[in-house]
Automatic annotation (TrEMBL):
Source organism superkingdom: Bacteria
Chief place where the protein resides: membrane
Signal peptide as annotated in the record: 1-22
Spans traversing the lipid bilayer: none
PANTHER family: PTHR47234, SECRETIN_TONB SHORT N-TERMINAL DOMAIN-CONTAINING PROTEIN
Organism: Flavobacterium aquicola
Its membrane topology: Multi-pass membrane protein
Protein name (database record): Iron complex outermembrane receptor protein
Family the UniProt entry places it in: Belongs to the TonB-dependent receptor family.
Record carries keyword NAD: no
UniProt keyword annotations, A-Z: Cell outer membrane, Membrane, Receptor, Signal, TonB box, Transmembrane, Transmembrane beta strand, Transport
Amino acid sequence: MKRILQLSFTALILFSANQAFSQNAQEKDSLSSKQNNLDEIIIVGSRNPSKSKLETPVPIDVINLAKIKNVTPQTSINDILTYMIPAFNSNRQSASDGTEHIDPASLRGLGPDQTLVLINGKRRHTTSLVNYQNTVGNGSVGTDLSAIPASAIKRIEVLRDGAAAQYGSDAIAGVINLVLKENSGLEANATYGQTSRNDGETTNLNLNYGHKLGDKGGFINLTAEFNNRENTNRSQNHNLIIFDQSAYDNYFAYDFAEAPAASRKIDDDLLAAKGLHRDDFNFQVGDAKIQNIQGFLNTAVPINENIEFYAAGGFNKKNGTGYGFRRLPSETGNVVPEIFPNGFQPELKSNILDLSLISGIKFKLSDWKLDFSNTYGSNDFKYEVNNTNNVSLGAASPTNFDAGSHSFMQNTINTDASRSFDSVLKGLNVAFGAEFRYENYQIEQGEPASYENGGAQSFPGFSPLNVVNESRNSFAVYADTELNITDKFLVSGALRFENYTDFGNTTNGKLSAKYKITDNFFVRGSASTGFRAPSLQQHYFNNIATDVVDGKLLNSGIFRNDSDVAKQLGIPELKEETSTNYSFGIVYSPIKKLSFTIDAYQIKIDNRIILTGNLGNDPYGDPIPELQAIFEQYGAQTGRFFTNAINTTTKGIDFVADYNLDLGGGNLGISVLYNYNKNTVDKTLNNIPAIFAGQEDVYYGPQERSLIESNTPLHKGTLALNYGVNKFNFLLRNTYFGEVTRNGFPFGIEQEHRGKIVTDLSVAYKIIPQMQLILGANNLFDVFPDKQVYENSYYNVFKYAPVQMGTTGAYYFARISYRL
């Protein structure tokens, strides 16, 4: 029924808009421009600076963010890409430590660390956070796209093809290039919204100002943005009664909503006699509270006709509050009753500072173009645990703890040279360069009370044993060429050699081609090898944290790959992931304003790095004494390790159709987007130590396997309609999130979540030429994933899994925009 309503609603909007404005002429400054943007020059994927996205031999998506940002319901880069690129997915996680504060993202179902992010074509640093709470991207380290203000970005280029031979490590799934604004003028936006459940309020304020510098193309562009998102609560029942009906002095998790009315009244009376109320036992499950304060700069200053200085970068100050599992009063090993007689739910607060600066000089030397640059980036993540206790300290325990921090710094020195030779066949472009990169990763300890004798409940702080200060260098040389053999046939190739101080050398190549069958129809394809260096975080991250292991809260350790316990168990040293990537596609553009592309691809990754399951129990959840005795020496009952344990194969198809037409005095843009993506993990594991023989389902089990194979939609598609006429603009977008399957083994069971459609709608009105008012909704019909079965819901607390469209539900917003 919902799908019928959605399709009917689409037709109604188009019909109403056409009837209401068919007699009006479109103004020159309409919100939807007639200009075809299919020919916009792109940066990513080629060092030939003259290619549009339809002329490249590999698939590239271009989102003109400066044009659509005001009318789309989403405000962060992760959310915008999720709803505009079917091969991209990002979900907010709950009760997952640091992962609640930096959303993991996936391109083509691969890990967050298998997509390279660029700013103005320069490598962006990753975060210092390791995702280790069995979420999407488990065991990976991604890039925090939310640290870059959307209001600073002109367009987003998404290269959907392996590009390690061109850009180095991480570019296995593809590359996301964020191109910053260069425009002059002033733009200010204010957005307020909240969910249909009166939570998750968002406030976004941003200011962008650009000014020309001189008369030779110089400019400066500045952006300031403030974004505040309140938490949501999507627990099975916001008001859990926590009461043991057989012994009134003890408590346990009991779903009040499911109890008969008579029982509810009795329980309320019993609680009232103890001076309690069921509201005292709320369990927060949902999106964390996040606040960002951001500033960004983009500038270019011509020194003379042949030399230009440029710089870009900024800062992001992020504070977040997430929630751990509730500790119940009966859990005497977790709760100090003198401090929390009713139990407590811990809060994990983050204080994250992200800094970046790109600076460089471009030269013209005869027919050569030279580019020398330095790119610096750092991410510092501090933890504070509140509303909790350290049981070992008894009534003297603090309730707030400084739990320590981790940080990552990356500095890249790069030199590029390129030249075009028009006289070689139908045109040759040559580019080559060298790159030196330095990286440093640190973990700093928290205050003693946060880690001593089991530490703060929910998130024990980093101890002196966890402290890390490790660095590495890499050096690379590379070359790529593009040759137009004829007017119809283009061939390009790239070769890259790279040396890392921690694992050695790797050489990768890429060959791609495009052939025009007619002026409007051509085929394209590529073949490449790639690699991803194990991150310093995967080499050296270690901690002891409280985790759910076989349905119980236990201290579980993540141990360094070079630690004594790793050597004792025979865990092999980390090495690079290697990949092969093949794609073949067609492009058809019968008229200037209409284009179709379809691309099939296959990505094989060997020695993929994973984080093992919790070792120490057998596949049935029973303790293995000899293993637990080893881990207990380090204050844990179970242990996990990073290892090159698996090989994977990814196969898929991307389809993109764009059409712009004049309709009823206005302009209608239609986009149909679709992605089919299937990930498969080989059945045989790599290099499993002999001590874990027979424990393959623990070392890398059904839960970890399902996170890669089936936790992102097999099918995802979008139908977007953008109609601009006179002073109005209408955006209507239906996004289909296909089925996903989650396996909660060993704690839960396998469950399929059916595919769902999410509808976005916004209406913009130009009050005066400089000012617009926008009203709209994301997930207009309040669509959620299927409810979790009881076995996967942690005693009915987690009503929904954070898959597909997530658990926010319907979100309504109002925005006012001013441009001068």
